[in-house]
Amino acid sequence: MPILNPDIARAFDEIADLLEIDNANPFRVRAYRNAARLIQGMSTDLHTMVEAGDDLKELPGIGEDLAGKIVEMVTTGHCSFLEKLEKQTPPALTELLKVPGLGPKRVKALWHELNVETVEHLARAAREGRIRGIPGFGEKSEARILETLQAHLAAIPRFPIAIAAPYVAALVRYLQGVPGVHRVVVAGSFRRGKDTVGDLDVLATATADSLVMTRFTTYGDVSAVLSQGPTRATVILRNKLQVDLRTVDTSAYGAALHYFTGSKTHNIAIRRLGQGIGLKVNEYGLFRGKERVAGETEESVYAAVGLPYIEPELRENRGEIEAARAGRLPKLVERVDLRGDLHSHSSATDGHHSLREMAAAAQAAGLEYLAITEHSRHLTIAHGLDPVRLRRQMEEIDALNGELQGITLLKGVEVDILEDGSLDLPDTLLSDLDLVVGAVHSQFDLPSDRQTARILRAMDSPCFTILAHPSGRLLSSRKPMNVDMSRIIRHARERGCFLEINAQPERLDLVDTHIRTAKEEGVLLAVNSDAHSTQGFAHLPFGIQQARRGWLEKQEVLNTRSLAELKPLLAATMVK
Ligand code: DGT
Ligand code: CA
Ligand code: CA
């Protein structure tokens, strides 16, 4: 089946849409649109012309570039440029382009106004009624957007933990209000702070006459009840999150909490330890014959098998049991240890609040310093800064620091790492900053050797402080880049720069196992909010949880340092 003119025309139209969303040169966009229209109206088949060896450049408005793309489509059946654009555009946006009545302009407006990068973000904005207020949108288009996205969301099997968290908090509050209920705790992967959760495992202790099971299955946010018994029920929430509730006896609370916290492989290892000393371990307790010897608290469970308490984030059977036995468990970093944040944006680019507002919010979040790190010019979609605008912001920050009390703004940038590994702004400018955060925002699909080389080269720049969201993954929509992360980590140690744990709900990047590698290599990590608004600091706890899953202690996190301790560490990454 040869490729037909309408297919080629559609491909060119899609390219024009994606280029337009990407703020490409309007002339370039128009060239694709005109070509699409021309091809749509042609009576000769392009594939016949290509096969006959005709010169396509004779067609009006078709130059070298477009002719090449037509030949590619006719001979291979697909268009690599379009595929590349599709890959670097958040899938939510390509999906949205298909919603009747939403052209690239309106899709672009949604992206800018709401700062959405994923289908889940956008669906949430629609559910929360935040789309109808945007100029050019109303309740009708909001509903249509939600409908289209829900089909897409049905295919997403796991929830990023920060997306699940508000639903979890609401449910726990509700259950705690049920008469007779004593304790409500969420176990499972949620308690272990895993980046995504499959379902929620809720445990409750309650008086025998408590109506907690009935109240659970009639909770307002429940869309379906899958099963219901006297001590166990399973429901689906409206957002498709599945929740199990179990009631347990107070005397077995610790054993149940331990069992349902998991992970499964950790449980199996603990059970083996128990077997070795003649104990049976299950969710009802630890038993020697018929006698229960432990189980009221988790501490008693561990103590019975000869171990100190192990934090939930470590329970993945990745050496925590051996470390516990040897008395070498890490003393994990905590949210209160954070003294500052080294990655944030203001309304100068794609953030929503002024420098002053961001500083106040950071201070309210208990921080003593905040680095402002706007995007650089290459990221046009985020209104990235050119040298002139960055210089102006540096002056603004200096002036503002003169007024602020108890919080200091640091001058930084989130500079784009270009395809060849060079940075998007000149060293003469970067060297006047306090820190340089480098990030990949395009060409996520290079082969591993080139992608790795690109990042290593960027780190070797005279001014390079922190590699932001190192894997580039988005939990709902983008796989990690194909890179040799161990190599990047070793290079960070040799270069003396740092890696980021980005706390954004869709990122949680660096990934936990690589955090552990970085720890072993002696590379410090920065737990950063990447806040785009004053609300953004609320994500820091999830970044901390991720750090804990990577076994990090306080001193292994860069921004637990006081400003005075931090400054020389930053300065050492910057050639002046
Ligand atoms: P998820 O829901 O996929 O994010 O991951 P988890 O870890 O929450 O797993 P889930 O919900 O299937 O089970 C909750 C916990 O229950 C799990 O972490 C450990 C425990 N568990 C489940 N099945 C087994 C099992 O077959 N053996 C043992 N020892 N524990 C289990
Ligand atoms: Ca679970
Ligand atoms: Ca479960």
From TrEMBL:
**Cofactor(s) needed for function:** Mg(2+)
| Any Gene Ontology CC annotation | cytosol
Q: Which GO terms describe its biological process?
A: DNA repair
Source organism, top-level taxon: Bacteria
Q: Which reaction does it catalyse?
A: DNA(n) + a 2'-deoxyribonucleoside 5'-triphosphate = DNA(n+1) + diphosphate; a 5'-end 2'-deoxyribose-2'-deoxyribonucleotide-DNA = (2E,4S)-4-hydroxypenten-2-al-5-phosphate + a 5'-end 5'-phospho-2'-deoxyribonucleoside-DNA + H(+); 2'-deoxyribonucleotide-(2'-deoxyribose 5'-phosphate)-2'-deoxyribonucleotide-DNA = a 3'-end 2'-deoxyribonucleotide-(2,3-dehydro-2,3-deoxyribose 5'-phosphate)-DNA + a 5'-end 5'-phospho-2'-deoxyribonucleoside-DNA + H(+)
State the SUPFAM superfamilies in the record. Answer: DNA polymerase beta, N-terminal domain-like, Nucleotidyltransferase, PHP domain-like, RuvA domain 2-like
Q: Which residues form the Helix-hairpin-helix DNA-binding motif class domain?
A: 54-73, 94-113, 129-148
Any idea where the Polymerase/histidinol phosphatase N-terminal domain is? 340-419
Where is this protein chiefly located? cytoplasm
Q: Which function does this protein serve? A: Repair polymerase that plays a key role in base-excision repair. During this process, the damaged base is excised by specific DNA glycosylases, the DNA backbone is nicked at the abasic site by an apurinic/apyrimidic (AP) endonuclease, and POLB removes 5'-deoxyribose-phosphate from the preincised AP site acting as a 5'-deoxyribose-phosphate lyase (5'-dRP lyase); through its DNA polymerase activity, it adds one nucleotide to the 3' end of the arising single-nucleotide gap.
Q: What is this protein called?
A: DNA polymerase beta
This protein's species is: Acidithiobacillus ferrianus
Q: Organism classification, top ranks?
A: Bacteria, Pseudomonadati, Pseudomonadota, Acidithiobacillia, Acidithiobacillales
